[in-house]
Design a protein that fits this description.
The chain is of the alpha+beta class. Helix content is about 25%, strand content about 10%. It has a domain at about 20-50. The chain has one helix and two strands. A two-stranded parallel sheet has the order 1-2.
Amino acid sequence: MRGKRVVPDSSAVPAMMSGDRICLCLAGKRELPVVTCDTMWRELDIGVDIRVLR
């Protein structure tokens, strides 16, 4: 995963908090899915398996 961009920059997703970015980066680095209730994450195309509960 080294060198691969996991989370888009803030201009692409201005509403994403730093904790959200850390969660996505860690999931990408460990190749694990992310489970969230934040429906905005459904729109992300960053190479991480995102599972939205709603």
